[in-house]
Amino acid sequence: MFKAALKVIISFLMMISVSLPGTLSLGKVPKGSTVDMSKFTLVWSDEFEGDTLDASKWGYEWWVTMRKGGYWHEDMVSVKDGNLVIAADYLDTPLENRYYDKWHEQIHFEEYKPGWYTGIVTTRGKYEQCYGYYEVRCILPAATGMWSAFWMMNEGVYNVDGSGQDGTEVDVFESFSYKDHWWGNDCVSTGIHYDGYGEDSKGDSIGKIFIENDPYTQYNTYGVEWSPEEYIFYINGVESGRITAGGVSQNPEYLLLSCEFAGSNGVQDSDRHGTGKISLTPDKNWPAEFKVDYVRCYQYNDML
Ligand SMILES: [Ca+2]
Ligand SMILES: [Ca+2]
Fold first, then answer.
1. Residue 60: which of 107, 149, 113, 124 has the closest Cα?
2. How many domains does the chain have?
């Protein structure tokens, strides 16, 4: 009887999960087809060998100031043991802003202060691609109050015209769910946003996807196949969902790898994005690390 009732409740939750915001939707086990790699040719990649970030491929300058509940700074980014490592930690002494002269006149420029620091790297202005298959292999930061992400953008994302075809933020994964007591710890969120971030902002989500192979200690791959008709998302090569909302972006987009702290105005607020409470006690794994083994970009053979 109890089992039957539970099944009804779970079925109902799965039914409504598609219409709920990403932070409330039910974790789903990836199902569906395996990505057909024979359709693609590798056109760009970084395996993160050596001990410095390849400046011909990546830059730090997308945003070099306050970001949500913390700050982004290039000193939080390193390359070691075959991985890109984006660290996240509380710093009592603010880091130096080496882009001060260039950025301090900007509207959103804010001085670095003591607080939560982490980083971002982007291929903006260095590598941008339209369509194909994109995959990252990584270990997610085991920490509350923050999240890591592999995502894509172009400037058309801000253009409000009722369509995502001019540009869409594609979030291949965002890891909001470390110690998420509602839906389980080992989930990632996947979705898209377009028409800016104001009142006209639109988007869609495939909800939270459960990762069977512990994403905080083990490598997993997170990918998206982007065709002119749809985005197909994959975890470890297995389809987790599809999105066509707003029409698919028809313009080249750049890649971003980042960590962010929940909050606003540089003040951490763990409840703001449903990431769980943050704490500086020693059992909270600080500094947390987002470790990326590789990023690989493929193009459809017939679009080369
Ligand atoms: Ca648009
Ligand atoms: Ca590597």
1. 124
2. 1
